[in-house]
Each structure stands twice: as C-alpha cells, then as structure tokens.
Design brief:
With about 300 residues, the protein is of the alpha/beta class. The chain contains twelve helices and 14 strands. The model has no long low-confidence stretch (mean pLDDT about 95). Bound molecules: magnesium ion. Magnesium ion (MG) binds near residues 9, 10 and 11.
C-alpha cells in the first residue's frame, strides 16, 4: 500500500487556517488506498492533541497515523540496548509522557534539583551570587542515565546545569529535534535546537537527533506502516514525503529513501528551492496541494 507522509504546519494548515485543497488531497489519497501519516518535529504536544487538532480542522487521522518527535524518541529509547532506566527530560510534559508510556522511568519536572530557589536567588538583579550559592548547596541525586532534550518553554539555568551534570557523567544525550526556530502566531521563537546547542557547548558532546533531518522520525512511520527500509527502485515511488522545508523535510525523506515533494506554501523561501543541493533537493516542487494530484497518477 502506498504511503504519504505529511508535514503538517505550512503544508496542510497554517495556524487555524486549513490550506487550499488539503481536504480534497487527503480524501483522494485515502479513497485510492494510500496510507496517510502525519509527522512532526514538534515534541510539545502529544499525539492525542494532534489528533484533536486534525479533527477540528476536518483533516481526519488517528493516533496510529500521527508520529511526533516525542513519540519517535520514546520508541528509539525503548529499542536501545541497554534500555534507559532513568531519564531526565529538558522539554515539555508531552515528551515526558510519551517516554513514560513505553515503560521507561522519567524524572518529574518538580524533582529537579534547583527547581525551588529562594526568592532572592530567583529574582534577577536582587542578589546575583544567591543563585550560584543555592545551586552549589543542593543535595544532588545520582545523575540520570539518559538526557532527552526538546523544546522547553520553561527552560531554566538549573535545568541546563542538571542536564550538563548527567551528560558529563556519561548519560546518553538525545535530542527530540534540533529545530532552529519555533514559528508561532506572527513571530519566531527559539526552537529546541537552541537548547540542544547550549548543552552541546556546555558538555562538548553531540546529541543524537531523532527528528528531521535525521531519518528516525520517518523510520518510525515506516515501521508503523509495516515497511522495511531501505526503499529502493520502484518502492521509492510508493512512499512520498510532502513538506515545506528543504533542509528538514527533504533531507529526512531522502535519508529513508522516500520521494520528497516540496510545497512552497509554508516557510519556504524562493531561494531555498533553487539553492537546495544533494539530499536537500526535492524530487518534485509543487505550489499548491492541487498539484499533487498529477504526481499520484
Ligand atoms: Mg512545516
């Protein structure tokens, strides 16, 4: 059965607005026997929350067909040997809960050493040495065996310190994704990659990245669809990735051997298409989902 893997934001919708032909495209694919999957680097929402959003936008889909970087990270950890037994997450609750749901113990945010500074230490500019005195006075638990980093809208210096301590003590260092930016209503915020980079600098170690452009996220989709990589020959044509970024979606598509269809409705700059080289160069460029129909024939 052919497989279509959609990036969501910028491809099927932008914010609360469904993009033209999204409904028709998904209906046509499903009607002609394609398996439709949704894949995202976002690790701050659970699959259930994505299913609810897709439902609200009338795009269909269920938890079986949504793969987030949080979910792919959890399943990557689950398959490792030895399997992690004590995970410290710098990231959102969704990332913690996906890891917990594969049966791996995760430290809760409130257990973090340094999460309850006295007011003078917490307030910027009141007593500058107080935070250092507080952090160095803590009774520290044994470091976690694994550190997982994703987008954390509540990042603190204490979290970075705890992650640095564990990684320097030898913990496995995994990033759900390394996105530069987090595009939200009307502006860009720093993405998970900015936090990963801080810890890479702090430790001199490189994180294993699960999200796009690395292949693990799409490999998780293929595993769920019962398809074994590598995709070679005519099988390539049976797996399409439809995304709006050359250096994330197209590269990851090619790393699993899929056919990359770039749509220019999202963040894509005109230059990004002409400058894309090697793995980042799309197999097809479309300007609207309507142009996908002829490619399916
Ligand atoms: Mg996108």
């Amino acid at each position: 059965m052919p497989i279509a893997i959609f990036d969501m934001d910028g491809v099927l919708y932008r914010g609360a607005q469904v993009l033209p032909y999204a409904h028709e495209t998904l209906a046509q694919l499903r009607g002609s026997g394609w398996q439709v999957y949704f894949a995202t680097n976002n690790s701050t929402a659970t699959r259930g929350e994505y299913v609810a959003r897709l439902e609200q936008l009338g795009l269909g889909g269920d938890e079986e067909h949504v793969v987030t970087s949080a979910y792919a990270t959890a399943h990557h950890l689950e398959r490792r040997d030895p399997k992690p037994r004590d995970v410290f997450v710098v990231g959102a609750d969704a990332l913690r809960s996906e890891i917990q749901s594969v049966g791996i113990p995760v430290r809760q945010a409130a257990e973090l050493p340094g999460s309850h500074p006295p007011p003078a230490a917490a307030a910027d500019g009141v007593d500058p040495p107080a935070m250092r005195a507080y952090l160095t006075s803590l009774d520290l638990p044994a470091p976690a065996d694994t550190v997982v980093v994703g987008l954390d809208l509540h990042l603190t210096y204490a979290k970075l310190a705890e992650a640095q301590r564990a990684i320097l003590a030898g913990a496995l260092f995994v990033a759900s994704n390394k996105d530069r930016a987090y595009p939200v209503e009307g502006r860009l915020l720093p993405g998970a990659g900015s936090i990963v980079a801080a810890l890479e600098i702090a430790t001199g170690k490189k994180a294993l990245c699960i999200g796009k452009p690395e292949p693990f996220l799409f490999e998780e989709v293929l595993r769920r669809a019962g398809v074994r990589p590598p995709l070679i020959g005519p099988r390539r044509e049976r797996v399409l990735v439809i995304g709006d970024s050359t250096d994330y979606d197209m590269v990851a598509a090619h790393r699993v051997g899929a056919t990359g269809v770039l749509i220019t409705t999202g963040l894509t700059e005109a230059d990004a298409v002409s400058d894309a080289q090697g793995e980042a160069a799309p197999d097809h460029v479309i300007h609207s989902l309507e142009e996908l129909f002829p490619l399916l024939a």
